[in-house]
Each structure stands twice: as C-alpha cells, then as structure tokens.
Amino acid sequence: MFRHPKLCRFSRTTHEKELSLAALALAAVLSPAFGEDAGKKLRIVFCPPNMKHSWNVAAARAAETDAKKLDIEIIVQTAKAIHQKQSSDLRNAVNQGVDGIVLGANDIHALVPAVNDVIASGIPIVTFDRYVEGTTKKVPFFGLDNVAGGALLAKYVIDKFPNGAKILFLTGQPGSSPAIDRAKGVHDTLKAAGDKYQIVAEQTGN
Amino acid sequence: MRDQGLTITQNMLTSLGSAPERDHRFERRHGIGRFLKRCSRPVSQKTRVIVLGCDLTPEALAKIRDGALDGSVEFPLKQVTMAIDAIVGHIRENKPVGR
C-alpha cells in the first residue's frame, strides 16, 4: 500500500487493501439531547451531488448509519448533478426549518448564492468531499487533499513508465472541487517530470 | 455516467489512430476497465496500458482483484461521518466547527 501523508491512499494489489483510517481523527462522542426539544430529533439535510456515482451512494449509507448512532433524522436530497436543483434543495431546507445542512457541492461557485442564503438564515452548514468558494462566510469543509490525490495518480504513472508515457485523462464533474484539484495534481506532477509525459487527450467523463 | 466515460475514451482512442469496436456483452461481463485495456491494444502491439481510477469503492477494489483496474486512489468515507458529527456537535453543544 502506498500511502500519502495527506490522507490519500493508493491501493494497487489485492494484498494491499486493508482499510486503515488512522490518519482520520474521530470527532468527539457527543452527548445527546442538549438543546433539542424533548422527543424531537435533530433534522439534518444531507446533500450529495448525485447518486449515479457509487461513492456517493456509499456516502449516503454512511450518513444514515451515523444518524442512527447519533439519534438524529437524516434527510437525503440528491441533486442529480444539477446545480439548480441543489440550490433549490438548499433553499427548501431553509424554508423547512431544518437544524443543519451537510453539503457535497456540485460546483465550487454555482452553489454560492444558495449557500449564502443558508448562512443568512443562521442554519449551520458544512461541506464534505466538495467545497464551495466565495461565500459571505467560510463554510467548514470535511474532505481530503484532492491535489495530492491527483499527484499520486501521476506519480504511479511515472513510476510504471520511467521512459515516458502518453496519457488519456478522464476528469470528473466540471466545476466540482475534486475535479479541479485532482486535475491540478495530475498536471503539475506530470509537468515537473518533463516532456516525455504527455496528456494526449483530456475530457470530462461526466 | 460510466457509459459516457467509456464512449469518450473510445473517441479519444479513435482520434489517436485506434478504432475500438464496442462489445456490450464483453463490457457487461468484464467491466469497463478490462474493456478499456482491450480496446487500447490496437494502438500498438507493444503498448502497455494501465488503467487508474479514483475513490476505491468496494466495487473498484473488486476490479483491481479482477485485473480490470491497475489502481485507485482512495478517498475514505470517514469524511462524511466527520462532517455530520461536527455539525451535530455544534448544534447540540455549540462546539466550534473549524475549516
């Protein structure tokens, strides 16, 4: 297993697949019911960008499992990779008076007006996996270093092809922070390795 | 989404001088990664192709075992539960949520 200091990991054989999460610190165990009305569960809206991708399906499952542990209600609202729908979902959540929002933003900029509305409402909001930039107040982000992840991909190619390689690069959802950051990691690392590494074609796979 | 990715890859390979034929039965049976390797072969008999991905879902891990993928960068799901734990901690106990 090749491990990156910034939490990304690269699994490449069947013998190197153990799921170590040592670098990720658990949040403190929370005591229940402080600030909640008796008998009423906290309602948290969980907004993954889409459910076509198996990682997001697994993320929604993880959220539901965590909700049981914390004794809260999780409302999953998938955006189907449409910025306008995700913006509407956020504003609907404000109108419903939910207690908090956990967002995987479809786009680094397009969600900013809707996130600003959430901030103005006073409802707490955090992001996971995909962050937003340019909001009136910084939104806490829980995720990994995707630039490092992209660099890890490029380093693997360099390691396997020391004499150079031609690369087809399929990127993620345009405008999303992981796609932007991973591409930066891939480009910067290959550029530093010299002209013998060429990205001969690059397109989004979404 | 996967189908789109495959089509785009085929188009890119075609533009580079290879003309891979789609084989839906093969794709269904062996997955996209293995098909990508197969359709990359006509570029050159001497060409060695590796296929890398992101996220390392259990499904991707199975593909690595199967030989369809050479590797995948993992982005653990722990970030999801950390985000939820943090916002609930903030609401219940007014704990700070740092960026």
Please, what is the average pLDDT of chain B? 75
Oligomeric state, counting identical vs distinct chains: heterodimer
Biggest interface, and residues per chain? A-B, 76 and 50 residues
Mean pLDDT of chain A: 84
Low-confidence stretches of chain A: 1-7, 13-35
User: What does the radius of gyration of chain A come to?
Assistant: 19 Å
Question: Rough shape of chain B?
Answer: elongated
Q: What is the first-to-last residue Cα distance of chain A?
A: 29 Å
Give the overall form of chain A. elongated
Query: Helices and strands of chain A, in N-to-C order?
Result: EEEHEHEHEEHEHE
**Topology, number of strands of chain A:** 9
User: What is the first-to-last residue Cα distance of chain B?
Assistant: 31 Å
Order of helices and strands of chain B: HHEHEH
Proportion of residues in helical segments of chain A: 25-40%
| Major beta sheet summary of chain A | 5 strands, parallel
Protein structure class of chain A: alpha/beta
Got a strand count of chain B?
2
Strand order of the largest sheet of chain B: 1-2
Number of helix segments of chain B? 4
Strand order of the largest sheet of chain A: 4-3-5-6-7
With helices defined by DSSP (H or I, 4 residues minimum), what is the helix count of chain A? 5
Structural description of this entry:
Chain A has helices spanning 54-70, 83-96, 112-121, 146-160, 177-193, and strands at 2-3, 9-11, 43-47, 73-76, 100-103, 125-128, 141-142, 165-171, 197-204. Chain A is of the alpha/beta class. In chain A, the strands form three sheets. Chain A has a five-stranded parallel sheet, sandwiched between helices. Chain A is elongated. Chain B is mainly alpha-helical and 99 residues long. Chain B has four helices and two strands; from the N terminus they run H-H-E-H-E-H. Chain B has a two-stranded parallel ribbon with strand order 1-2. In chain B, strand 1 (52-55), helix 3 (58-66) and strand 2 (71-74) form a beta-alpha-beta unit. Chain B is elongated and about 60 Å long. The model of chain B has no long low-confidence stretch (mean pLDDT 75). Chains A and B meet through strand 2, helix 1, strand 5, strand 6 and strand 7 of A and helix 1, strand 1, helix 3, strand 2 and helix 4 of B.
